[in-house]
Amino acid sequence: MSAIHLRWALSLAARRAGLSWTLTSCREKKGPLHGPLTGCNFSTEAGETPPAAAAPPKKKKKQDPLARASIGSVGRKIEQRLLQVIGEGGESLGNMHRSNAIRLMDEQGLKLVLLDANADPPLYQLMSGKQIHEEQLKQREKQKAKPATVQVKELTFSLGIASHDLSTKLKQVQNWLDKKNHVRITLRSRRTASTVSLDQTLKEMVQQMPVTVGFVSKPTVIRDGRAMCILRLPSAKELSEKAKSKQSPPPPIDATPQRSEPEALSTSPADASKDPAQQ
Question: What is the pLDDT of residue 95?
């Protein structure tokens, strides 16, 4: 292939790619170039700006699952052909074709909202934008009111645990309780200490915690050589009772001696010597 044909082929390929390239410098030899073209530099034409680099895609922000609306307008994209439609006021409009439902939606200036996709036929309702917003707020409140799943953490103590190790593990228990988890504590005894009251020992270990705790399951012996309890955060009632027990002082003791009745009625000899008339 001659040099002219090779240059034409390169320029044609560049134009098809959307660029206009020209040969700026090549090894020029007298006569046609044979073999592969080497040592050639390519550049854009004068006044032509190179294509801009593609901007990196923007990262999507993570949305709160509670903020995602589980109810909304389906627009005009309805897969089912036959629908069961409810009016804006809650009245049943019966079954109708999707084209009729869309026409009714446009006439009334409302939006179609899917209520139950598992119904036969699927249940839709005509709603205004205000109604949709109110339903979304109600569903968010219901999701917030649902109790969260409680995790149960586990720790095992040995009966001969050192005081430093015990305080470290009790701090870990407190951290788990602060995160609203339940903690299952198992006390394991040695064979030579089988006569020790494990449930009472476990209770005394829990009482060493600096905070008040509640019990899902109080310390009990589950089998030979093992005792178990499950801790939780204390309720408001338990905290108030604990505070009252600390604040209430013991009843005062009255040290004033009380005279007996005969002593109160007794009279001195001086009073007895007085004339009854003078009294």
Answer: 93
